[in-house]
Design a protein that fits this description.
The structure holds 2 protein chains of 2 kinds.
Chain A lengths: L1 H13 L4 H21 L5 H22 L2 H5 L2 H18 L1 E3 L2 E7 L2 E3 L1 H19 L6 H19 L4 H17 L4 H18 L5 H11 L9 H14 L10 H4 L11 H34 L3 H25 L17 H19 L3
Antiparallel strand pairs in A: 1-2, 2-3
Chain B lengths: L2 H42 L1 H9 L3 E6 L6 E2 L5 E13 L7 H11 L4 H13 L6 E7 L1 H9 L7 E10 L7 H4 L2 E3 L2 H9 L11 E3 L2 H5 L1 H5 L3 E7 L5 E8 L6 E4 L3 H11 L4 E6 L6 E7 L5 H4 L4 H9 L8 H4 L9 H10 L9 E3 L2 E3 L6 E3 L7 E3 L1 H7 L2 H11 L1 H9 L22 H7 L4 H5 L5 H5 L10 H12 L3 E2 L5 E5 L6 E3 L6 E2 L4 H14 L7 H4 L7 E7 L22 E8 L6 E7 L5 H4 L1 H13 L26
Parallel strand pairs in B: 2-10
Antiparallel strand pairs in B: 1-8, 2-3, 3-4, 3-5, 6-7, 8-9, 10-18, 11-12, 11-23, 13-16, 14-15, 17-20, 18-19, 21-22, 22-23
Helix pairs in contact in B: 10-25, 14-17, 14-22, 15-22
């Protein structure tokens, strides 16, 4: 009787989940535990916390994987509206930390509304395009662009360039899959590039410094360049096969800044080497491939747009983080997906995965 | 559906697939770029970066800020730092720990206590950090270790700053102590995002003001960016960010008053809190017995800890903050306010104060502390002579619902908000309180009984308050209802800029009670120190006006018909002696609550302490029989002592 019950329970749990995604995510998660243990100097404190918030995120993911996308879709306008209201609230009465105003207090705790927008904006756009699927005109793209630029602008003003870029990217991917003309896309890129001289003076000092440091970290080896130099030393000295788990000298002699969060890839890279890096990149690529398969098979426009945006956003996270730590992109606060320590970002990622699985289940 | 639309859909479908393919190709391409970058860094540049890593040229060496001082209101130092050498071992760098320790013991005096403490710290650590084997080396020992050119790696003599509390037991319950940062502290620092600022820091405030004002006292760590050679030795300093030393805490506390109170208590147990009613500043804050805080700084060994913890006198318990005692008759002024505010009695009403009080229809005897009773008295006089039967009846007539809202406004039964952690709430009895407190014993036990209120009228029964709450309530009474938050720290002084930050200088609120009711109760309290009052002897020869109230808190209840005989009861079962007071009555500058445990009647043990403190604080007079003071110069009364009012 009992084994039978357990079997049925197991069936019920795994039924809405996507086997391939779970396998790849599981492997990334195992790697992340190894590297976090090393990065936190062999303390179990952060591991314990990570296990707790990952479990909670999994529950949320499971619920979303079970939910029908047509139902979830209807929450897009209210969630988007709520996100906008919270962003406005941040603008007017947010909490300022280190010169940027990103948080707002809601009684017991404080939240970062820009995190909500990472999911709310693509949802809203996908909902919008699905609603007008049969009667798309050029101005629908214009309205879509406006829906995208409003939250992006507010987040940019906080200022939080990293998150603003991610939100805009998530929105842009929806427009892209909805059929935004190539002419406009290429035109936009050219316009953006030619607008650089105008944007440059509008950037904050620290943002300009980050870009300059990227071009030549050695200009400021003790200031802004320090992080990049130290993480590049970590990666480079790791060599093809790495120094071995728990044996990274850069890590354990305290040279790597933010080594459990944004720069955790440097720790991983130092200890597991190029082989480890390629393994991680391949795992990420597998997740992305699976995501695009789900996108291609999605039966509704909403499903397609949402799945495509989630998958491409996931790529952006991974690429931007690894690119910044290895010194080919400027330092922006983007965590390495499913590896960096931090509950908020993990919940957002798993929400995305849950929605993706929900869309995959639509065909069943 | 129109035909062109269908065709459109097909076109859309293929366009969508095309875009998917474009996106996928782009992502694969980007990942290839990334992998190319890895190959470049990890294969082609590997050697270059390996060299850099081995001789990592820039190392950040933290420079510790000096922990802030704690001084009393006159600038007398209560907590300070001094520099001394320590012998520290880093276990992860030592091959044979036992042999190293044995070798070191030959040139440095390592006591069994040092060893015990070392092993305890070793158990708690992970072996990466340096652990002191012996703290405070003598100059000779430091020189000997240095001269032997100690060749063992992982063994270092370091100059470190130590914390010193010159007044030891006397201030232990106020200042608390610092101690080594343990795993729990580390996790908290991590959660609060403060780990960077604590790089290189080994100590953190654990209790008392040291803990509450940790952020102020710690300061901001500085960094020296050093160029090092491949052996890790510093070659030269590239850049130095100096540390910002911790702020100085200037207390409202007057250490001379504190010492006087401490001396007057002698070996007796108890607590004393003195507050300046016009600011809420705490002038003296004593819990007896205290403990030597220096025992805790470098980790206390288990034996000493167990001994302190199991000591029947409970030296580790902060009685002023956490001890809850029935207030006894010191409660009477506050219940009098409740009676006046509720018009339960008029100021001129004369009522009997007999030897015994009976509830209607009951034969249970509520006795007066005075065998003969006090005849006919008004409310003020009832306070002055401390008639129990008068207040039994008053409380009975009012009922609990009229008492607790007024008494509660004096802060009794709630936290005062003082700048110390772990304040006890005490018990302000009410029907809701009893229902909640006794809920698990059923409705019978948790229902409010009419008789419950009777003993509450004289401060017994369920009543239980801390000495701090009593001092605060007395200050509010003295102040005609203006409430301040009691605070030990008066101002925080930035040692670099000299800027000061005042703590809780503004009154919180003013109680909505009639001024003449306060005046009336204070008149009764002034009578306590006058002829016929319960503390008349204490009031003899006053050069300023003083108001007070004696109290006796029952520890054991006395059976019906039996007589209380203090000498027959074991000492620990004897009553506690209470006294609350303030002076000068017209413009109060000091309010005090004192409890002396197991000392019998309030007038005998607690009241003389208050008188001595007030004499000194208000007139600069020192009692003749007190001998040498640490804090008070003997020649003449201190010049900055306040003139008599």
């Amino acid at each position: 009787m009992q084994p039978h019950l357990i079997k049925r329970l197991w069936q019920a749990i795994k039924e809405p989940l996507d086997g391939w995604l779970m396998l790849f995510l599981g492997l990334v998660f195992l790697l992340s535990l190894l590297v976090l243990y090393s990065a936190s100097n062999q303390s179990f404190y952060k591991i314990d916390n990570k296990l707790i918030y990952t479990f909670l995120s999994l529950v949320i993911m499971w619920l979303l994987a079970r939910a029908r996308p047509q139902v979830v879709m209807n929450f897009a306008p209210p969630i988007y509206l709520l996100g906008m209201i919270l962003l406005l609230a941040v603008h007017f009465k947010g909490i300022t930390v280190n010169g940027s105003t990103r948080w707002i207090s809601i009684g017991i705790t404080r939240i970062q509304p820009s995190e909500i927008m990472k999911i709310a904006l693509p949802m809203m756009l996908a909902w919008y395009f699905q609603k007008f699927e049969m009667s798309m005109r050029w101005w629908h793209y214009a309205v879509g662009a406006l829906l995208m630029l409003l939250p992006t602008g507010l987040v940019l003003k906080q200022p939080d360039l990293g998150t603003a870029t991610l939100i805009m990217a998530a929105g842009f991917f929806v427009l892209f899959f909805a059929g935004l003309s190539w002419k406009i896309i290429i035109g936009g890129v050219i316009a953006g590039a030619s607008a650089l001289p105008i944007i440059w003076p509008m950037l904050h000092d620290y943002q300009r410094k980050r870009v300059l440091t990227l071009i030549d970290p050695m200009t400021d080896p003790l200031g802004a360049g320090y992080h990049i130099i130290q993480s590049m030393i970590a990666i480079g000295s790791g060599g093809p096969f790495g120094k071995g788990w728990l044996k990274g000298t850069q890590t354990h002699l305290d040279y790597i800044p933010e080594r459990t969060t944004d720069f955790i890839f440097a720790v991983y890279s130092e200890e597991f080497g190029m082989i480890g890096n390629i393994l991680l990149v391949v795992l990420y690529l597998l997740i992305i491939s699976r995501g695009l398969m789900i996108t291609a098979r999605a039966p509704t426009l909403y499903g397609r747009l949402m799945a495509g945006s989630i998958t491409l956003s996931f790529f952006v996270y991974a690429f931007v983080n690894m690119g910044m730590v290895s010194g080919i992109l400027p330092v922006v606060g983007v965590p390495l997906p499913f590896v960096s320590y931090g509950g908020t970002a993990t919940v957002t990622l798993f929400v995305g995965m849950g929605m993706l699985m929900g869309i995959a289940n639509q065909r069943k | 559906m129109r035909r062109p639309q269908l065709k459109n859909l097909q076109a859309e479908e293929s366009q969508f697939q095309l875009r998917l393919l474009a996106a996928y190709s782009f992502m694969v391409l980007m990942f290839i770029v990334l992998i190319a970058r890895f190959v470049w860094l990890q294969v082609f540049q590997h050697e270059h970066y390996s060299t850099l890593a081995q001789s990592n040229r820039i190392s950040l060496v933290p420079i510790l800020p000096n922990r802030g001082l704690i001084v009393d209101r006159n600038g007398i130092v209560l907590a300070q730092n001094y520099s001394a050498y320590t012998l520290e071992l880093t276990p992860s760098k030592i091959e044979n720990l036992e042999k190293t320790i044995a070798d070191l013991s030959k040139i440095v005096d390592v006591t069994p206590r040092d060893l015990k403490r070392f092993r305890k710290l070793l158990d708690e650590s992970k072996g990466f950090e340096a652990i002191p084997l012996k703290v405070k080396l003598s100059d000779e020992e430091a020189a000997r270790v240095a001269a032997n050119g100690w060749s063992y790696p992982g063994v270092e003599v370091k100059a470190r700053l130590f914390r010193d509390y010159p007044y030891k037991e006397m201030t232990s319950h106020v200042l608390g102590y610092i101690g080594r940062i343990n795993q729990q502290d580390k996790e908290k620092l991590e959660d609060d995002d403060k780990t960077t600022n604590y790089r290189g820091t080994t100590y953190i405030g654990k209790t008392g003001l040291e803990a509450i004002y940790e952020d102020d006292l710690h300061g901001t760590v500085g960094f020296e960016e050093m160029e090092t050679d491949s052996g890790g030795r510093a070659i030269r300093s590239l850049k130095r960010t100096p540390p910002v030393n911790g702020n100085t805490l200037k207390l409202a506390l007057d250490i001379r008053l504190q010492e006087m109170a401490d001396r007057m208590f002698g070996e007796r147990r108890g607590a004393l809190v003195a507050i300046d009613p016009s600011t809420g500043g705490v002038l003296a804050f004593l819990s007896k017995p205290g403990f030597d805080p220096s025992l805790f700084i470098d980790g206390i060994d288990n034996q000493t800890w167990a001994a302190l913890n199991s000591d029947w006198q409970k030296p580790l318990v902060n009685r002023a903050l956490r001890g809850v005692y029935p207030p006894g008759s010191t409660f009477k002024p506050f219940i009098s306010m409740a009676a006046l505010e509720n018009n339960a009695i008029g100021k001129t009403d004369i009522r009997p104060a007999p030897a015994t009080f009976y509830l209607p229809g009951s034969s249970h005897e509520f006795r007066d502390s005075r065998k003969t009773g006090n005849g006919m008295v008004n409310l003020a006089r009832a306070i002055t002579v401390s008639s129990d039967t008068f207040f039994y009846r008053l409380a009975w007539e009012m009922g609990i619902d009229k008492i607790h809202p007024v008494v509660g406004q004096f802060g009794l039964g709630s936290k005062t908000g003082i700048d110390l952690d772990g304040e006890a709430i005490g018990v302000l009895p009410s029907k809701q309180w009893k229902a909640k407190r006794f809920a698990k014993w059923g409705p019978q036990a948790s229902r409010w009984l009419p008789a419950d209120v009777v003993s509450i009228g004289i401060g017994q029964g369920f009543n239980a308050y801390t000495p701090l709450q009593m001092a605060n309530a007395t200050a509010i009474m003295a102040n005609d209802g203006v409430v301040f938050k009691p605070h030990l720290v008066q101002e925080v002084v930035d040692t670099h800029t000299g800027k000061t930050r005042r703590i809780d200088a503004q009154p919180l609120r003013t109680l909505p009670f009639a001024k003449d009711n306060f005046e009336y109760v204070k008149q009764g309290m002034t009578g306590v120190l006058g002829p016929g009052g319960t503390a008349a002897r204490i009031g003899a020869g006053l050069t300023y006006s003083m108001a007070g109230k004696t109290g006796t808190a029952q520890v054991v209840s006395i059976a019906q018909g039996q007589k209380y005989n203090a000498s027959a009861l074991a000492e620990q079962k004897r009553d506690h002696s209470w006294f609350i007071a303030f002076a000068p009555v017209e413009k109060p500058r000091i309010a005090v609550a004192i409890i002396v445990e197991n000392a019998g009647f309030g007038a005998a043990a607690a009241a003389p302490i208050a008188r001595a403190l007030f004499d000194f604080y208000l007139t600069g007079k020192i009692p003749g029989d007190m001998g040498q003071f640490k804090t008070i110069p003997q020649e003449a009364p201190s010049t900055d002592a306040a003139p008599p009012d």
